[in-house]
Amino acid sequence: MQRDDLENSSSGFDEEGLERRVEKLAKINAVLMDRVERSMDQQGNAFSLFQTAIGLDAKVRSRTEELTAVLRRLECSNEALVEAKDEAERANLSKTRFLAAASHDLLQPLNAARLTISVLADLQESDDTRQLAGRVDQSLQTIEDLIKTLLDISKLDAGVVTPEIQSFALDEVLDVLEASFMPQAEAKALKLKVRRSGLLVQSDPLLLQRVLQNLISNAVRYTSKGGVLIGARKHGEKCLIDVVDTGCGISEVELETMFEEFYRGAAAAKSDHAGLGLGLSIVQRTVQALGHTLEVRSRPGWGSTFRLTLDCASVATSLPDRQPTERTSPEITRGAAVVLIENDRDVLDATVRLLTNWSCKTLAGSRLDEVEQALADLGRPPDIALVDYHLDEGRTGVDAVKALRDRFGADFPAVVVTGDWSPEVAADVSAANCELLRKPTRPAEFVP
Predict the structure, then answer these.
(1) How confident is the model at residue 183, as a pLDDT?
(2) What is the pLDDT of residues 233-285, one digit of tens each?
(3) 96-104 contacts at long range (C-beta below 8 A, 24 or more positions apart)
(4) 196 to 208, 227, 242, 290, 388: CA distances (angstroms)
(5) How confident is the model over 10-21, as pLDDT tens digits?
(6) Would you say 162 and 194 are in contact if contact means Cβ atoms under 8 Å apart?
(7) What domains can you pick out in the chain, each with its CATH number?
């Protein structure tokens, strides 16, 4: 009995143990299968991420190459732009130098022509021939103005004109302008009024004078009746300068194009004394260089107003005194000994004729050594030297003046004449304490 019970008990134990073992193995199997499945999922995700990373890397590499190519093209474009800008600046400066050299070469024969016309006019006895000589001189004046204007535009475009801003009394400039334009206004029976203000302004006096000179010249030229008013007044910290005329006026269409080079409006087409169409272009460029502003109001048939706005000043910088131009009298020049050094034969001959008409004794030559014998025969120091700046063999008129002063004293008076309008030449002449006379020279007028 006990044995049967033991066997039954052992058999039950084995079956229960086996079931537990099977159940345990099933759980272990389920866990393992779950881990295997999760491992497979993770491997699948990792592979997917790996594929995504490879794709992104390819896209980044492609975009990087595209960006690098764009940057290289942009760099090349910038280099090309810089090179083009430098080339344009070099071309502009070359144009300025060319015009400066060309203007010097053109002014030389023009100077000789004007001197010759002056001598020819003095030799004529009839009014008709004098008037004809005057017309020729007027044509030469037009050519001179054109050359100077083209040179000025070139300098302004090249940025080589540097305004010398200073404080000065505006009335000093207005006085010069009134004296210059009053004869023209009176010849046309126009009223020219200048209203002075006593204001001190900040500007370059020479450039400001040229701006107002162009504006007043146009106003007088295109006004047939009435008059021209130049007035200045203070407005806050600014000075307003108005040039008002009662001329033909300017249409709306012309207001948009009037500052272009060589533009001549409807009024110019009807005028016998129309300008070159460059004055207002010069005005606009000069005003911009000075930092001023210019406004225009006009009504066809009623007239125009040009308003220039600039800064006022509190203290004035003294300007060099402007001596009134004196008419040359034969009694003043009679017997004066003049040393004339000029390497252009036409200018030399014309100047000798002019000085002879002024009753001067002229010691002339293309080089200083050519007048040595004349100086020795003179028996006394000459009264003045008139020398061209650019001489042969690289020499200058300043060199000739130094040689004359070594011989006749440091106070020996000298005038250097030149068609070279560069600041370097002006500075060299000023440093030598000589007077500067720019070509084409204008012969002084005689007092009968």
Answers:
(1) 84
(2) 999 999 999 999 998 888 777 766 666 654 555 554 455 444 545 567 778 88
(3) 96/154, 96/155, 96/157, 96/158, 96/160, 99/150, 99/151, 99/154, 100/151, 100/154, 100/420, 100/421, 100/422, 103/147, 103/148, 103/150, 103/151, 103/419, 103/421, 104/390, 104/418, 104/419, 104/420
(4) 16, 17, 11, 22, 40
(5) 444 456 666 676
(6) no
(7) 94-158 (1.10.287), 166-312 (3.30.565.10), 330-438 (3.40.50.2300)
